[in-house]
């Protein structure tokens, strides 16, 4: 199973919004990056990813599952744009912030650190495990 990270501005579409969709989930639409679209084309049903709040919060907050593979984006007039459908699986025990990720050398090669603008990105198994580990431990006091 491949792992991913999906970024959304929480004032536009948040973790709570996806959670409210229940088992039906939601199209991950509106992505207009060729690179992100091509990444979504690689996704398979059952793949999991982190839901990441960008701009406000800048933190991984939950785990999502791909429930439909790449298909035409219903919000696009151009058939080149595709998206996947996601459903919320569970929140992380605690959010893992971008500052925590950047401070941890295990994430030095993570796409989130190297290409912060990419809205849909792959996550390695080691990165996945390390974020879950951080989420299960109390945040360090600044």
Automatic annotation (TrEMBL):
Residues 3-133 form the EVE domain. Pfam families: EVE. InterPro entries: 5hmC_binding, EVE_domain, PUA-like_sf, THYN1-like_EVE. It comes from the Bacteria. This is Ubiquinol-cytochrome C reductase. It comes from Paracoccus contaminans.
